[in-house]
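RECORD TYPE: protein structure
NAME: Exostosin family protein
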Amino acid sequence: MKRSHFLLHLLFILLAFSSFSVLINLISKPKTRPYPSLKNPNSRFLHPPLKVYVADLPRSFNYGLLSDLYSLSGHDNRLGTNPDADRFSSFFYRLFKTYLSVPPYPENPLIKPHAAEYWLLKHLEMNKNPAGGATAVRVRNLDEADVVFVPFFASLSAEMELGWGTKGKFRKKIAEKNGDYRRQREVVDRIKASAAWRRSGGRDHVFVMSDPVAMWHVRSEIAPAILLVEDFGGWYQADMKATVSGDACNSTYIIQHTEASLLKDVIVPYNHLIPRFHISQNQPRHTLLYFKGAKHRHRGGSIREKLWQLLENVPGVKMEEGSLNATGLEEAKRGMRDAEFCLHPAGDTPTSCRLFDAIASLCIPVIVSDQIELPFEGVLDYTEFAVFVSVKNALTPNWLMEHLRGFSEKKKEIFRVNLAGVQSYFEYEGGDAVSQIWEMVYQKLPMIRQGLVADRRKLDDIDRELKPVTCLCT
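PREDICTED:
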């Protein structure tokens, strides 16, 4: 009898302790926002797939650029070594490349971040069945299409010219000397002569120009289209030097803000260079703030040098000059995975691949910018996994470090759990980036249709033409 009482008391104590432990875990568990995976059937988009017609361009403007030109181009003058030498020069690649419908994208770290054009086209090649559950499907009939996708690898084309030519030639509109300009010109001429462009004036066309220098010479001609870009750094943010000198209106580095807008265009993520680090792999971090990259940049990136002077000798901070070779990327990977926070100041444009490398590394981004546009805002709330700091505060001595040291361990854990929850949104291969980009394009459809209907009621042909792009200086 006593033994049975003892066992009952013991069982009661164990149950009470277990309930108490569960309660403590519920109270102490970081409260995070459950970002749904786009692959989860329960959170799939609640509308039919976007119907995409792929414009008729020769293969030489997309996959042919990879298999027939890039693979034979040799060494990128900007790099010490060729990261693609083994892939594209191997016996097996050369033997079977004729049979590869989709060749691999370069590992070149100056080209790989701008791979959106490759993955979007590949997605359309693989998804041709409207009932297949994809967010976008390819259709063969133009009359069925919601949008027209232009399959030109504009970023690859531009970076090839920069890597194997010279900046001087890149800026010149001479088809015989500038292969990128020749391709840009031919693409635009073909597209604007098509029935699809004449039907809509280009409003329903989608150009991928993620690299800031993509479509450099013809941007004003495709301004009516939906532009998929990594940021608006080259658009309506004035070149700082030109602004100071009073020549902003004449700067060739500015794309006028009649050409690009969040109303019609889509911000897409860079393709990160550092491999994804899963939260189950996370270890204690020993550095408070980490940065690896170029110390000197142009225009808005001039803040880097000032931050460097403030932070380079501060305990808990690592500021390292960057190099885009295998050694440099390995150092960046180790540095980001060992740091609580990763500094993200502006480069030549407000964003860079570094932000997405930080997210992939579960390193809390510290975004120092007064002017920045980010992918999928509205779907994602960046304040839940990143720290935003104004330029003024960042350049105030001691302010930034005191601010970062003020975050509790619990708050940093919440940031990191939220980072893990959004990593897939920035994964092109095997992740949700492509699906989310197509969803953002889908959201432009009402605006496109409104514009097309408005155009049809304008009887005067002159009214249908786009107003000339002007420099709006304020």
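COMMENT: The longest helix spans residues 2-28.
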